[in-house]
Amino acid sequence: MNRFLTKLLVSITVLAMLACQQKAKKETSQANQEGPAEVLDSTHFNELVDGKQVRLYTLKNKNGMTAYLTDFGARLVGLLVPNKHGALTDVVLGFNKASLYNNPEEPYFGTIVGPFGNRIAKGKFTLDGETFTLPTNNGPNTLHGGLKGVHFAHWTAKQASDQEVSFQYSLPDKQEGFPGNMQMTVTYSLSDDNELTIAYEAKSDHKTVINLTNHAYFNLNGEGSGAITTHQLQLFADRYTPVDSTLIPTGELAPVKGTPFDFTTAKEIGRDIETQDLQLSYGKGYDHNFVLNGTKVDGMNHAAKVLGDKSGIVMDIYTEEPGIQFYSGNFMAEKVTLKNGNKDSFRTGFCLEPQHFPDAPNQPNFPSTVYDAGANYHTKSIYKFSVQ
Ligand code: BGC
């Protein structure tokens, strides 16, 4: 090769390397500083749902962590969290248009469930000798407050700051069969330590049962990025509440040791999920309440630690509740399209719902969910994000 050609080749190689470096630098800086484009367009949330105006509310902290919420169901519809490279990743499943949440086929994405989250056996419970009957919407049982619950309710929003928004709802007496007019307030706040706190308050004018929680579906590798079975999960629970074939607890608090339910040290969600096990067969995977040990951090129960294996995102959940429902997305069946255009395929999201135990109104040995008229219900859960 003559000298001219050699020089030309060297120059072309150097130029190509420089261009590659520039491109990589630009991508890193976009990921670090800007993250993905806005995942939600607020104009798609300014629409009428069920004849009432719905809006999008945005909370942002100094690290760019962003929570998107809507007043329809007081829902968390998106959550941008920095991954191990500093790029913002949306870790909550949802839709990009408010009206898509009004779907009885997939009603619980990101929503508050209540007035009684989880199941009540055969849609019945008794207080002071009076039996209350609820609509059944999950086989023979009532799930997540019934047909409308509070997930299809229009809550009234008050945004106190860029890092806090509250939603209020008045549940009328006997709506979905629950006694009493109940005032509820749910406040979402985002700290500069990357903690999303959900605080719940409620009060009824009649003795009733209350169990509020949030029903976000998480994928810490990113919404719509594939199965969650490779996530690592640790649950601070030595016991769980086994269920019957309709997912109602038998009343027993069973040890997890030696069973697929042992998450006392971190393990992949998918490691034991296909084990031949009667409890797993009832839930088609994990769909069970875990009894928290009460491992206290700043006065709250450390409930769970989850790691997104690809993103390095870690979510710790702290709660004042005695239990947490772990649902591994076993009934997800490509019924809907997510924000990023992908389908809600089998086990592409998991829920961890801090709560009192399922069917507590009918289970005298479970912590009580009964509140007298005028009594204050309050509870709080924190979702803290970090990277590893
Ligand atoms: C329940 C599941 C149910 C899911 C619906 C969970 O809280 O435990 O059985 O399918 O909610 O989103």
Helical segment count = 2
Query: What is the CATH architecture annotation?
Result: Distorted Sandwich
Q: Which percent range fits the helix content?
A: under 10%
Give the radius of gyration.
Answer: 23 Å
**What is the number of domains?**
1
Helix- and strand-based class?
Answer: mainly beta
Give the end-to-end Cα distance, rounded to a whole number of Å.
Answer: 51 Å
Bulk shape: globular
Low-confidence stretches: 18-35
Bound molecules: beta-D-glucopyranose
> Can you tell me the CATH class?
Mainly Beta
How many strands, which pairing sense, and closed or not: the largest β-sheet? 10 strands, antiparallel
Oligomer: single chain
Please count the beta strands (DSSP E, at least 2 residues each): 29
Average pLDDT number? 92
CATH topology: the name is Beta-galactosidase, Chain A, domain 5
Strand content is: 25-35%
Active site: 215, 353
Protein name: Aldose 1-epimerase
GO molecular function, one term: aldose 1-epimerase activity
Binding site for beta-D-galactose: 118-119, 215-217, 287
